[in-house]
Each structure stands twice: as structure tokens, then as C-alpha cells.
Amino acid sequence: MDAQCANISLSKGSAIPWVDEIKYSGVCILQSHTFKCSLANHRRSFYRSANAIFGNIGRMASEEVVLQLIKSRPICIPTLLHEVEACALTKSELFRTNNIGVVKSSQSYFGLCLPSEIWA
Length: 120
Prior knowledge:
It is a single chain. This protein is an alpha+beta fold. Helices cover 50% and strands 12% of the residues. The protein has a domain at 90-120. Helix 1 runs antiparallel to helix 3. It starts with 7 loop residues before the first strand and ends with a helix. 6% of the residues are buried.
């Protein structure tokens, strides 16, 4: 059962209301019993950037070339990883699969690193 919390009162008499989500330093923090972030905005920015690349080259290039362009474009991967740094995500949340074999195969085939390796 969710508890109803009182607003936080400030010294000038105004109050800070409770909200379902808040954006702090570019990270969207969601209301939850545990610390939880939303990747929706960053994922949308990543797809917009990746689709711009794909839209320019279309089907003329192989998947490897498209992925290399996405990896080399300075906005694509950093945009996607911005919130991942602040939130502890599971591999299934990151890769949208529960099959670790799919994750490992994708990483190996396309030369993708884990976020922890990229940050290092």
C-alpha cells in the first residue's frame, strides 16, 4: 500500500509537492520504493541520432559499417550511457533480453563493450 506523504514546507510558507518523476542533472528519477531511473528520453535521443545515420546511408552499408558509424559519432553512445552511469541496470534492461547468450553474441559479433569498459 502506498503511503500519502505530506508536502515539504519551506520557511517562506510555500510547499514542495511530491511528484512521480524529477529530472536532476539530466537523469530522470522515478517515484518508486527503490531507486529507479527512466531511460526513455536518452533512449529516444539515441534512436533519433542512430536513425539520422541510417537515414543518410540507407541499405547501402552493411550492419557493421552502420554500427561503426554509430559508435564513432560523439553523441550516440554518450547519450545512451548518460543515465546508465547513475542507475544500476541489469543486462536485461540494457539489452532488452533475458538470454545472456544473445547479449554475449551481440557484443562479440559487433565489437561492443560493456558500459563499465567504456567508462574506464
